[in-house]
Structures are given as structure tokens and as C-alpha cells.
Amino acid sequence: MREDDIPSALAGEGDLVRGRLEKLRQWRERGVEPYALGFARSDVTAGIKERFASLAEGEESGYRASLAGRLMALRRHGKACFADLEDREGRLQLLASLDSLGEDGYALFQELDIGDIVGVEGEVFRSRRGELTLRVASFSLLSKSLRPLPEKWHGLKDVELRYRQRYLDMIVNPQVRENLLMRVRAVQALRNFLDANGFIEVETPMLQPIPGGATARPFVTYHQALGQNLYLRIAPELYLKRCIVGGLEKVYEINRNFRNEGISYKHNPEFTMLEFYWAYVDYRVLMGFLEEMLSAVVSEVKGALAFVYQGQDLDLSPPWRRVTMLEAVSEAVGMEIASGTPEKELRAVAAEREVPLEEGWGAGKIATELFEKLVEPNLWEPTLVMDYPREVSPLARAHRDDPFLTERFELIAAGREIANAFSELIDPLDQRERFEEQARRRERGDEEAHAIDNDYLRALEYGMPPAGGLGLGVDRLVMLLTDSHSIREVILFPHLRPEA
Predict the structure, then answer these.
(1) What confidence tens digit (pLDDT) does each residue in 265-288 have?
(2) Which residue of 242, 264, 347, 402 lies most exposed, with the fewest beta carbons within 10 A?
(3) Other beta carbons within 10 Å of 67
(4) Does the structural domain 3-143 have CATH classification 2.40.50.140?
(5) CB contact set of 433 (below 8 Å; sequence gap of 6+)
(6) pTM of the full structure
(7) Is the bond into 319 cis (omega within 30 degrees of 0)?
């Protein structure tokens, strides 16, 4: 192929790409279109392996199979050529020979490259070496691969390249595909469990005029026709609770949330949450329900509740340990921290343990910061941490025994939050006071504080039944199920900084 014929985007890619472009030209000169419209396959590799698992060495099946997939290996041996064909279900060996394809067909097969997508037909047999194999009687080139697959992809130290070129990561790393399929199964299992327990799946707005339901900085955009700012939702909470006001009683949503915050191995600006709300129950009921739900889901998709995560045993079998947040902080600092502990004393405890604080934080926020820095990373086995301060829980109901606290709990496992739940605040006057306090924090520069949502307050004023609500981080759950350290391993296309 002449230099002038090479697309500019591929011109600097080297001789291997040049050679593949030349093959592409030659196929077309022969009248063969190397980018097909489709292929009528009747089989998948896993089905073939299961069906003919009992074939003896050297035995023919008499079955003519039709497969399609990507060539992942080619081994040429004179008048015979072995290849590995991979589809979504797995791999199967191919045998192409001069005898089975004829001179012209065999010559064409030998011009294929690793990475090409092909359709093949032929009889299934087991080789004398015990390998289940398809003897290729005919084949079609379905899509020509112009770029060679990397030979040492598993050894790449630049993991960001794997995330950036996820399509390539999935081609050459079967574990990536398995992780993503595990995610699909986990989401389906969550949905099935909630459906079976009488919950209704709904869809709430992702573009919201007022961001609410969580303490986070939102993404903002501008709607030209409406002439107003809209925000990508940070949580569906306030809309789901409107559904409870409207009488749906048991609702859930599995969908995206967006938070304009940092990126780390635990955080992605776009992530998946399950949130559900249940009328006439409190947070104590939700603790047992969460144990039941995760036990069922993990057993179904993982096969066991006890497994190894990041080299350490983790057992999700209920019942889980239950401890209040202030009890956990007291254990960590070696002194009693209670609702009445003065802010000045808490600041001294934080300073002694080098926990940075900000001006304007009250006793509740400081106690929570001590928990997040000194306790949460060390909670390995699943733990239900209960009764968070009111200051950091603007949508949770005040605790029935202590107004400094709320009826809220978090599930912590493997050192990170997996779920957050509380008895819902249904008193519209109390909720208005908390929104107004959040608004004052916004005026003082807290970009993550809640704005006042007057329509939500109006909904509460019509009357919301007692209710409990729970949010579960789907990505973080899948991290546990797939033994993944980074959230980027379980998100199909994670957000990254622009390429240099």
C-alpha cells in the first residue's frame, strides 16, 4: 500500500499496521468485503464444550457447528493451521488445513491475523492430544483488525491505559469481562430480591432544578428553553420520598448519581446507587432487611458468604456486629465520647491524633470526622454503625432517645461504607429548620450543603407516613464480589484525566 493511501491516523503506527492495511486492500481486490453485515451462527463455544465434553481423544462428533468470534492465537504448521477462536462464552481451538479448505481457502485462512473477527463452520472433534476442536470447512472474515493486540497486556504497569482503552482490556483480559458480568448478575439479583418483596421500581429525574438528597457538590448545566440552571442529581432521595407521599409505599431505583468531586480508587464522579424507601418501618427494620438482602444476593452471585478479599478473609454471614458511632470512636481514642462532649474537647482529641478539622464544624461533624479517619478504615468484618450526629444527617429523623443524634446507620465492610440508611425525617417543620441551617452553611461557603427544596417541603406538609430509606453503593458491593481494589475495575468506562 502506498504511503499516500494510509489514513493519517494510522500513518505513524508502524509496519504491522501497514501490513494489515495491505491485506485489507488485497481482500477487497479479490471481491471480498472484510467488514461483513452479519453471520448466521448457531453455536457458542461454551455450548460446544458442554455438549461434547464426553468425546474421547481422536473421536469425531458428527456435528457441524457454526461459530463466530475473535482470533486470539494462530499457529501455522505447513499444511495445517491451528487457531483459538474466542466469543463471549470462552475459547475453542480451530483446525484449518489444506485438505479441509482447499488450496485457495487455506491460503486465505493463512492471511488472517490475530485480532480478526471471523465466522467458521465445520465438524467438532477431539484431537489426539485431548483438545476439543472444530475442523474448519468454511470461514468468513467478518471484521479486519487493523491494529495488533498487545502481546504483554497483563504485564502493563500503566493501569490507566487499561481503563482508558477498556475495549482492548476486555479483549485480552478475560477477568475484566467476568468482573463486568458479575456486576450484571449482582444488579439483577438486587432487583429480583426487591421485586419479590413487593417493591416497585421507578425512575426519577437525573436533571434536577435543586440538587438534594446528599451532601455533595453537583454538576451544573443550563437549560436554554427553560432559562434556568439544572443539576445532575447527587441522589434520587427527595424524589423517591415524594413517591412515598403519593402512596406508593415501597419504591426503589437503581441508577446513576453524579458528584463533582475528586477521583480515587474509591470514588468516580459518576456511580451507581440502589436507593429504596419503605413506608411504616424504621431503621431497625432496615438493618435486618439489609442483612437478608445482601445474604441472598451475595450467595446467588458469589456462591458463598465467606470469601477472600484483597488477601484477607471476609465473611458477610449475618448477624453483623452492631455498634453506635460514638461507641466506636470512644474505643478508638481510648476515652468516652458522648453526645455532650464539648466541641473544644473534641478538637483537642483530633489535634492529638492529627485529624485535620475546619473552622465552623460543630461537635457532631468533628465526631464524625474522627470516626471516618480513625475507625472506618479499620472495620473489616461487616459492621452496622448506628446513630450518627444530627449535624451530618440533615434528612434523618432525630433519635428517639437523644436529640443530638439521628436514627441512621451505615454498613461498613472491608474498611469502606457500603450502605447508608435511616428512619426518615417526616416532620415538615423540623425539615425546614434543617434546610435553613444548611442554607446558612452554604452562605458561609460550604458548597456541599443542601439547598432549600420548597416543593419537597410542600410534599411533606401534605403528610408523609413513617418510613425508612436505604442507599447501597452498587460499585462498592461489586468491588467486594470481584476482589477489586479500585472502583475503576468494576465500572465499564471510568472517568479519567484527558490524554496528554
Answers:
(1) 888 999 999 999 999 999 999 999
(2) 264
(3) 26
(4) yes
(5) none
(6) 0.89
(7) yes
